[in-house]
Design goal:
Layout: E1 4-8, E2 12-17, E3 20-21, E4 26-27, E5 44-46, E6 49-51, H1 70-80
Antiparallel strand pairs: 1-2, 2-3, 2-4, 5-6
Length: 82
């Protein structure tokens, strides 16, 4: 079991594994937060189709409408770990 969080402000993106930052803030990938484009988890859009498929299990996906800071991520990890 691993707990992953990807948090983006629209300009920067931060990645956390098990409550600990694994990347520094850097440029964010394009994230459409106002359109009706589907959100894909576990794959990416490649050309006209889906590609880069994740080979594993994904469970308990959450989407928040606010930016999670490092304290939020640590607290979320603490209350969700098995």
């Amino acid at each position: 079991w691993e707990h992953w969080v990807i948090s983006t402000s629209g300009v920067n993106i931060s990645t956390y594994k098990n409550g600990v930052s694994v990347t520094n803030n850097g440029p964010a990938a394009t994230v459409n937060t106002v359109g009706t484009t589907p959100l894909y988890v576990g794959c990416g859009v490649v050309g006209a189709g889906l590609g880069n498929l994740y080979q594993g299990n994904i469970d308990d996906v959450r989407v928040f409408n606010s930016l999670l800071n490092s304290t939020d991520v640590t607290n979320l990890y603490a209350v969700t770990r098995p």
